[in-house]
Amino acid sequence: MANPDVTKLESIAREGRVQIIRMLTHAGSGHPGGSLSVIDILTTLYFNRMRYDPARPRWEDRDRFVLSKGHCVPAQYYCMAKAGYFPMDRLITLRKLGSPLQGHPDRVMLPGIEAATGSLGQGLSVAAGMALGLKLSGKASRVYCVVGDGETQEGQVWETLMSAPKLGAPDHHLDNLCVILDYNGIQLDGFVKKILDLEPVTDKLKAFCWPVLEVNGHDIAQVDKALDQAEATKGAPTFIVAHTVKGKGVSFMENEPEWHGKAPKPEEAVRAIHEIAGDSLPAWAAPVVAELSALGKK
Amino acid sequence: MAAKASRAAFGEALIELGARDERIVTLDADLAKSTMTAGFAKKFPTRAFDVGIAESGMIGLAAGLALTGHVPFACSFACFVVGRFETIRVSVAYSDAPVKLVGTHVGVAIGEDGYTQMGLEDIACLRSLPNIPIVQPADEIEAKQAVAYAVEHAGPIYLRLTRQNLEPVHDAGYRFQFGKADVLRPGNDVSILSTGGPVWNTLEAARKLAADGIHTEVINVATIKPLDDETILRSAGRTGHVVTVEDHSIHGGLGSAVAEMLGEVMPTPMKRIGVTTFGESGDPKGLYARHGLDPDGIAASVRKFLAR
């Protein structure tokens, strides 16, 4: 959207990083690295892009969001709470028995989640199916799908990358679909480059007939501009390669594969929050630090 | 009525239903001519999607279409559809996306193509998912009504269809009821439960057994999940002997479903007739004979079971 309030969006993302750390610390497990790498993208989508109504999660004309890399759903839960889908205090029920905030997204338990994901490789094809369905119904809604880089090693991703640019032609091109790659370079077992390199990923996508944009996935203005371009592109879906840093915002997590799927201990969480929010904590972060410090003393 | 493959009945039903209901779309993975959706595609080209030989992607796309209000039929050979179990498990079942999964070319009855094209484990796999009913019609009239039911069913569902022609086992007034087994022939000595392709052979076997004075109750179990416990228990309670006949692995199919239910509610001596090995190439009749699914084979198994 024109002239995004970047300062405001950055402050929402900063609070998101704190809440991600808080949720995972309470849960005692989960995936901080990818949640921190994707939060700026999700903040831009939820607070400066998508049309939705938390009071009517099944509103027919809403835009759809599919987090195909479902293990990073804490970032999405924060955005949903912040947007008003459920109270912020429910975030710390993440991964607890009976909570709709499942370890990986559950469409049935949590209204506002569009597809169950977490079994990697599936979300993009579901998102493309939604884009096609919306086109067939004559809806103007858009579909956004975030895929992971490790996830993009799955064959099913490439099946859909091959089909989506021409699917629905000539009357129902999927120009309502925008795919964003959270390219943080790390997967569970180590560096993507070492395990199964995606490069040259932009060339591959172009060869598959996708318009491709490259952005710094932590630069909200850049992400927003690319989303504008995607929306203006007619006749084809758009792919945005968002270069990100795994664990972004927490020095001891950044670019460290061990933080792919490990929750911080309370004292680590307090350190992380000080790094994110600053040493003189803002009013909203102080209670979180107090709460986590108390958790550490239990 | 002439013999007709349930896949052919499916293709005809789709065209009829598709004319009335614009929500219906089809997805295929380069087998539209075999799954018999090609007629629908010709009639409604903007609602038929052949996505190439990419079944996982096809099922994911179907989930997305289902979640945006359409009624997608995702079709391929049963082994290729259910072979993408993980996508069915998460994107269809767990997401509760009302996809209509269609697996054709089931069982050894496909013949010459051999094992890799035979759906022999599809029921076993899908039975393990909490919210996917499994329906296998036994003839044309039942197949057409089952397709119409699938459109109306609120959630995901699986239709299991044959390549080969099926002799009619129902008269023209038959009404398919989801979740209900139908007694095709009454009898008091033994209950034989069958589904899909071998139902007609089971009736033939019953005629042979009648000549020996063995009175067989033949029950067509079109809905394998959820199982019609009531009809099966009523019959088993009267005959005290239960045989199942299916063109599917004996592990996890109709026989297993019936044994699990009876074992908990009313343990009853049972014999399961079905496939116990990989399939193989050959003529369909010869394969049915080899696997004991022809009328003589079924009758012989029943005699042996009763004489044990």
The topology string of helices and strands of chain A comes to HHEHHEHEEEHHEHEHH
CATH-assigned fold name of the largest domain in chain B: Rossmann fold
Mean pLDDT of chain B: 98
* Helix share, percent of chain A: 40-55%
So, the CATH homologous superfamily of chain A? Thiamin diphosphate (ThDP)-binding fold, Pyr/PP domains
**How many helical elements of chain B?**
13
SSE string of chain B, helix = H, strand = E? EHEHHEHEHHEHEHEEEEHEEHEHEHH
What is the fold named in CATH at topology level of chain A?
Rossmann fold
SS-derived structural category of chain B:
alpha/beta
Rg measurement of chain A, Å: 18 Å
Main sheet makeup of chain B: 7 strands, mixed
Termini separation of chain B: 39 Å
CATH architecture of the largest domain in chain B: 3-Layer(aba) Sandwich
Number of domains of chain A: 1
- Helix/strand/pairing category of chain A: alpha/beta
Helicity level of chain B = 40-55%
Largest beta-sheet details of chain A: 5 strands, parallel
Quick one: CATH superfamily of the largest domain in chain B? Thiamin diphosphate (ThDP)-binding fold, Pyr/PP domains
Mean pLDDT of chain A: 97
Shape of chain A: globular
What does this structure look like?
The complex is a heterodimer of chains A (298) and B (308). With 298 residues, chain A is of the alpha/beta class. Chain A is 41% helix and 11% strand. Chain A has ten helices and seven strands. In chain A, the strands form two sheets. Chain A has a five-stranded parallel β-sheet with strand order 1-2-3-7-6, sandwiched between helices. In chain A, helix 1 (6-27) crosses helix 3, helix 1 (6-27) runs antiparallel to helix 9 and helix 2 runs parallel beside helix 3 (73-83). Chain B has 308 residues and is an alpha/beta fold. The longest helix of chain B has 15 residues, at 6-20. The N and C termini of chain B lie far apart (39 Å). The mean pLDDT of chain B is 98. Chain B has two domains: 4-166, Thiamin diphosphate (ThDP)-binding fold, Pyr/PP domains (Rossmann fold); 182-307, Rossmann fold (3-Layer(aba) Sandwich), CATH 3.40.50.920. Chain A binds chain B through residues 60, 106-108, 114-119, 121-134, 136-137, 139, 155-156, 159-160, 162-163, 167, 171-172, and chain B through 25, 46-47, 49, 51-52, 54, 56-70, 72, 86-87, 89-91, 94-97.
